Amino acid sequence: MFSTRKCIKKDCVEHAVTGSKYCFNHIKNPDEFMASTVAMLSDCDGITNFKFCKANISKLKIPCRSILTSKFTGTIFTDVIFDKVEIKLCFFDFCEFHNCRFTSADVRYSVFSGSVFRNCSFDDSEVLHTNFNGVKFTDGGFISCDLYYSSFVSSELQNVLFKDCNLKKVNYITSNRSNVSFKYSNWEEAEFDKGTML
To answer: Which Pfam families does the entry mention (predicted)?
Structure first.
C-alpha cells in the first residue's frame, strides 16, 4: 500500500504527501505544489500508492484514468470531476466533497467513511464493496449505479436519491434518512433495521 513517511517538520505527526518531505500544511508553496501535482497527474494514465492527505483540491477534472491503493484522508474536494476514473483500494475517509461528480466511475473496495458529501452525484457508476459508514450525504445521490455490498451504516442521508440502482446486500442499518428515495431500485434486497418502513 502507500508509504507512511512522516512530515519532516519538527513535532509534526502528519504524513508527508507524495512528492514532498512535508505534509500539505507545511509545504512552503502549496499553490505551486498543487500546480505541479496536477501537471504530473495530467501526464500519466494512473497513480498508485499516492498520498495526499488534508489538502484542498478544487475546480479540477481528475485527468488520470485510475487511482489505486492511495490515501486522501481529510482532503477537501470542491467542484472536482471524477468521470470515468477507476478507484480501487483507496482511502477517502473524513474528507469533504462539495459539488463533485462521479459519472461512469468504477469504485471498488474503497473507504469514504466519516466523509461529508454536499450536492454530489454518482451516475452510471460501479460502486462495489465500498464503505460509506458514518457519512453525511445531502442533496445528491446515485442514479443507475451498482452499489452491491456497499455500506451506509450509521450514515445521515438527507434529500438523497437512489434511482434505478442495484442495492443487493447494501447495508443501511442505523442510518438516519430524511427524504430519501429508492425509486426503481431493489431496496428489498438491501439491509435495514428491523421494522423499517420505506
So the answer is: Pentapeptide_4
